[in-house]
Amino acid sequence: VQLVESGGGLVQPGGSLRLSCAASGFTFSWYAMSWYRQTPGKERELVAAISSRGDSTNYADSVKGRATISRDNAKNTVSLQMNSLQPEDTAVYYCSARRVPRTYWGQGTQVTVSS
């Protein structure tokens, strides 16, 4: 099983990023997918989630209206578009796949929002 995140980097406040996660080694379309983020000393927090068929999404209050999660079951990818980024969005962002009882995690991609 592999979840490989990409698209992180340094962005100025107010800017945008699109994170992508490429999945392999499992039946992607059976799994709900999520993006989490974590900063040092804090618990990992859910940013956004999407159902296995892509017909349901939910977002953390902190990113509602600024983030859009999407998936392509034909390409085994999930993406997170983040707009109006602020310094408090700085974190390592993780892709996660979940289908009870299994949860898979990627290695994470760093997003730094700074001028």
What do these coordinates show?
This protein is an all-beta fold and about 120 residues long. The chain has no helices and eleven strands. The protein has strands spanning about 1-5, 10, 15-25, 30-40, 45-50, 55-60, 65-70, 75-80, 90-100, 100-105, 110-115. Strands 2, 4, 5, 6, 9, 10 and 11 form a seven-stranded mixed beta sheet that branches. The radius of gyration is 13 Å and the shape is globular. The termini are far apart. The mean pLDDT is about 95.
Question: Could you name the key traits of this structure?
Answer:
seven-stranded mixed β-sheet; mainly beta; globular
Secondary structure layout:
Elements: E1 2-6, E2 9-11, E3 17-24, E4 32-38, E5 45-50, E6 57-59, E7 67-72, E8 77-82, E9 91-99, E10 102-105, E11 109-113
How many strand units? 11
- Described by the principal axes of the CA atoms, the overall outline is globular
Helix-strand sequence = EEEEEEEEEEE
The rounded distance between the terminal residues' Cα atoms is: 37 Å
Task: Decide which structural class fits the backbone.
Answer: mainly beta
Rg of Cα set: 13 Å
Quaternary structure state of the chains depicted = single chain
- How many individual helices? 0
Mean pLDDT: 97
**Helical content class:** under 10%
Q: What does the main sheet amount to?
A: 7 strands, mixed
Which consecutive residue ranges, at least 5 long each, have pLDDT under 50?
none
**What share of the residues does DSSP label as strand, in percent?**
over 45%
